[in-house]
């Protein structure tokens, strides 16, 4: 079971605006915040997301083939999450729509280029 996922950022303040908006739609608060690190999630809930400046001091970079999937409650929320992402500095990676039988998703990147999607099954 995944406890949390941490993504790198080069501009924590800018990335925080993006993730605060996404987390608000999902009803998930900030659960930790330290200098250079913020995490969103609920104790006892599903996996959380953390953002940090890389500890080695080098620039954050995007993982090729890495994606974080955010489970939505319905197709309308998939659309809202996608729209929120684009309105808060994210970029399009595939508009919401069916992606095979029983899978509906929208794909986007955060301001640092990390790939995410919002999805619903069924």
Describe this structure in words.
With 122 residues, the protein is an alpha/beta fold. It has helices spanning 12-26, 75-87, and strands at residues 4-8, 30-34, 37-40, 48-52, 67-71, 91-98, 103-109, 115-121. The protein is built from 2 helices and 8 strands; from the N terminus they run βαββββαβββ. Helix 1 (12-26) runs antiparallel to helix 2 (75-87). The chain is globular and about 45 Å long. The model has no long low-confidence stretch (mean pLDDT 95).
Tally of DSSP helical segments: 2
Strand content: 35-45%
Query: What CATH architecture do you see?
Result: Roll
Alpha-beta classification:
alpha/beta
Q: From N to C, what is the helix and strand string? A: EHEEEEHEEE
Q: Which strand order does the major sheet show?
A: 1-4-3-2
The total of beta strands comes to 8
CATH top level assignment: Alpha Beta
């Amino acid at each position: 079971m995944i406890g949390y996922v941490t993504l790198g950022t080069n501009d924590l303040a800018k990335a925080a605006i993006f993730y605060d908006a996404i987390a608000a739609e999902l009803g998930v608060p900030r659960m930790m915040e330290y200098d250079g690190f913020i995490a969103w999630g609920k104790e006892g809930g599903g996996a959380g997301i953390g953002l940090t400046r890389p500890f080695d001091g080098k620039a954050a970079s995007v993982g090729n083939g890495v994606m974080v999937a955010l489970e939505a409650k319905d197709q309308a929320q998939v659309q809202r999450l996608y729209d929120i992402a684009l309105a808060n500095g994210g970029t399009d990676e595939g508009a919401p729509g069916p992606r095979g039988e029983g899978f509906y998703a929208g794909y986007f990147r955060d301001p640092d280029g990390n790939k995410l999607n919002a999805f619903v099954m069924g």
